[in-house]
Design goal:
The protein has 15 helices and 21 strands. The protein is of the alpha/beta class. The protein folds into two domains: 265 residues, Aldehyde Dehydrogenase, Chain A, domain 1, CATH 3.40.605.10; 183 residues, Aldehyde Dehydrogenase, Chain A, domain 2 (3-Layer(aba) Sandwich), CATH 3.40.309. Strand 12, helix 9 and strand 13 form a beta-alpha-beta unit. Helix 3 packs across helix 4.
């Protein structure tokens, strides 16, 4: 630790040590011998200071014209473009996913910056005729105040940008608590905010554990919104902690997403989608395709080709351009994967994989083989519970209708897709799949920033990120009535004819 760079919290425009005087290490999950940095293990006093700074900064930031706030976000996007490679490489080192994917992670932050920059001039309300004469009516958005951002490790720059950009363009200030596995990418995003001149106190950054930092953020009366992305179990805790004060909560949680492959599908295309959906980001996406529901007429062909592709994947350090899949994020996450693999061996037929990788350089990281189970029943645990690893279940079906029922038969409802050449089947699947995101002839991953992102059931609590829907998370509506009649008029009571 003596040679490692020490990173600080960012509070009220200053980089400061935690008052706790404690730190934690950030290591490479592909090679735990590599220490990337040391970060502040903050406490409740650090959180309070950050909230106080954000509360004070809000007084002025909310009055900055929204187009001017948008211009700052545009400059932030320009900075991210210039620094894309500088930010992608350390993201691969701390998170593990391959360099192509971390470049995409930064690109999403770029896209969101540009998109929300435009919303600085597009926070449209409504004007509408009154039922009374000489009376004007309109609706406008207003900011909430201090927003707490609690973000996960799998998209350490993209997901924070989904929250940060709309929060800022709406006039809110932010206290940002990143995942402790990936604080460096979060630091780089905050550093870019500082570089483009976002005023002090508007963006605050506090690292540390969920208990020491997250819970005080949720409990503070000065925090008006908690936006959280993570597991459904932790999301339930967020909801419970925030409920007594009626604090706004935005929850984006788990998924058990399915690709439906019909008997008329282009099988090779579906294979590519299943490989990308199941093993991209090592299966560590809330939108990962951990179930593939395949028509019985093509299930053997699909299975043989899918297993062959999975076995051929090159696993290793994501900085190697030949590598297609990196490690799990941590020992704990890898243990979870291995526990579910053991469950799957008792429930279904193991077709490939199933083991931790420990030979050679693999012994220094958290690597697991791409794993596929066949002949899976929809009610098996491996087909119902989120694993968050490179484990995919193949579930046979007799028809599109049965596939849709299986797809809908979990507690989640984030993403789904169908592979078919029949437009009628495609539209039926679109209509009847109860998910927040749906794809046709594509995998379950690949959302773009200008459409709403989020899910149904236990995946979320009814809100959406990205697109104009994000503005509804980070603003309140105000209805305004202007009576210029010069007299008291009573809506619903006075019946005034011209």
């Amino acid at each position: 630790m003596a040679d490692a760079k020490v990173y600080k919290n960012f509070i009220n425009g200053e980089w400061v040590d935690s008052v706790a005087k404690k730190t934690f290490e950030n290591r490479n999950p592909a090679d735990t011998r590599e220490l990337l940095g040391v970060f502040q293990a903050s406490n409740e006093e650090d959180v309070k200071r950050a909230i106080d700074a954000a509360k004070e900064a809000y007084k002025k930031w909310r009055l900055v014209p929204a187009p001017k706030r948008g211009e700052m976000l545009f400059r932030l996007g320009e900075t991210l473009v210039r620094r894309k490679e500088d930010f992608a490489r350390p993201m691969t080192q701390e998170m593990g996913k391959v360099l192509k994917e971390t470049r995409g992670d930064v690109q999403e932050a770029i896209d969101m910056s540009y998109y929300m920059a435009g919303e600085g001039r597009r926070q449209f309300g409504e004007t509408t005729p009154s039922e009374l004469p000489n009376k004007f009516m309109m609706s406008v958005r207003m900011p909430l105040g201090v927003c707490a951002m609690i973000t996960p490790w799998n998209f350490p720059m993209a997901i924070p940008s989904w929250k940060l950009m709309p929060a800022l363009v709406c006039g809110n200030t932010v206290v940002f608590k990143p995942a402790s596995y990936t604080p460096l990418s979060a630091y780089n995003l905050v550093k870019a905010c500082e570089e483009v001149g976002i005023p002090k106190g508007v963006v605050n950054f506090v690292t540390g554990s969920g208990g020491a930092v997250g819970i005080p953020l949720m409990k503070s009366d000065d925090v008006k919104l908690v936006t959280f992305t993570g597991s459904t179990a932790v999301g339930r805790t967020v909801s419970e902690v925030c409920a007594p004060s009626f604090k706004h909560t935005h929850l984006e949680m788990g998924g058990k997403n399915a690709i439906m492959v019909m008997d008329d599908a282009k099988i090779d295309l579906a294979i590519e989608g299943a490989v990308w959906g199941g093993f991209g980001t090592t299966g560590q996406r809330c939108t990962a395709a951990s179930r593939v529901i395949v028509h019985k007429k093509v299930v053997k062909e699909f299975t043989d080709k899918f297993v062959a592709r999975a076995k051929a994947l090159k696993i290793g350090n994501g900085l190697d351009p030949a590598v297609e899949m990196g490690p799990s994020i941590s020992e704990d996450q890898l243990n979870t994967v291995m526990e579910y693999v053991e469950i799957g061996k008792k429930e279904a037929k193991l077709l490939c994989g199933g083991n931790r990788m420990t030979s050679g350089d693999y012994k220094h990281g958290y690597f697991h083989e791409p794993t596929i189970f066949g002949d899976v029943d929809p009610q098996m645990r491996i087909a119902q519970e989120e694993i968050f690893g490179p484990v995919v279940s193949i579930i046979p079906c007799d028809s599109l209708e049965q596939a849709i029922d299986i797809n809908n038969g979990t507690i989640y409802g984030l993403s789904a897709s169908v592979y078919t050449q029949d437009v009628n089947k495609a539209f039926q699947a679109m209509r009847d799949s109860y998910t927040g995101i749906f794809y046709v002839n594509a995998s379950t991953i690949g959302a773009e920033v200008h459409l709403p992102f989020g899910g149904t059931n236990h995946t979320g609590n009814g809100h959406r990120e990205a697109g104009t829907a994000a503005l509804d998370v980070f603003s309140e509506w105000k209805a305004i009535y202007v009576d210029f009649s010069g007299k008291l008029q009573k809506a619903q009571i006075d019946d005034i004819m011209p």
